[in-house]
Amino acid sequence: MKTKITELFGIEHPIIQGGMHYVGFAELAAAVSNAGGLGTITGLTQGTPEKLANEIARCQEMTDKPFAVNLTFLPSLTPPDYPGLVQVIIDAGVPIVETAGRNPAEYLPALKEAGIKVIHKCTSVRHSLKAQSIGCDAVSVDGFECGGHPGEDDIPNFILLPRAADELEIPFVASGGMADARSLVAAMALGAEGINMGTRFIATQDAPVHQNVKDAIVNASELDTRLIMRSLTNTERVLNNDAVERLMEKEKALGDKLRFEDIVDEVAGVYPKIMHEGTMEVGAWSCGMVAGLVSDIPTVKDLIDSIMTEADSIINKRLSNF
Ligand SMILES: Cc1cc2nc3c(=O)[nH]c(=O)nc-3n(C[C@H](O)[C@H](O)[C@H](O)COP(=O)(O)O)c2cc1C
Fold it and tell me: Which atom of ligand 1 approaches the CA of 44 most closely?
């Protein structure tokens, strides 16, 4: 399938794996890229420029296809060495960067000068237009359904995607709630040039995370995610568990007085324990409503192949028969 996104990134299928903290290691990024999609290494999981350079080199050994690095800009008391991370991305010849969290304008000139394509992930039409105006090549439009940070507008993709299509000139992919061929075809009908998936890619054999994480997604329904940290204007969609219930009790009790320090036990530093050790109840971890559509743990290649085959059948058989 040729779309503006496959052309822009030089990939075979319009399917992107979004950056995911403690999931987006070289193994997953390479598996997605080798299957014809666009895999993404998560920069901040590596943390330092040296470690990121090493992870990029590992990925380059596993694939000769294009892959991306995600740079998430988060408010932080001790910010990561972003200029250093950008420099190793440039030095390693990574062709695509996925930015998220806030406006990437500060780093755009360096990335563009190096010929790197930038896809900015954001949750609103106004942020998408901003990304376009500062020179991003594409946008990943992340609807309210998404795992991770859906923003504060709460606009689901059935509204957000056609709104983005009405306003944007640069190509965009649909992110949030995407799981299968139906998602891909629907997203294209709403104006997207492809899809970005997070949660669905965690429940694959290639995702380098503990089996408990994959099983938790398979066992979850669409009713099992919760929104946390709303009063901190840092809303995150996570899978419900004991830690999330504890956290929500504190949110309820403290209301607008809640500070980050009050919930630090449930959210800080929990990803390695969950993703590597499989201690699922230790804290809150991002997960999309799309978990309700995930019932198997295929290889990345089988997943992508089946999406493309079934998309063809939906377009050429089901839809063309109407
Ligand atoms: C476990 C997990 C960790 C994530 N970490 C990040 C991250 O570090 N940076 C980022 O930009 N997006 C992150 N995301 C968001 C994904 O890249 C993607 O936008 C989102 O999962 C799409 O929604 P979906 O889960 O419904 O497919 C994360 C998502 C999950 C599920």
Answer: 8
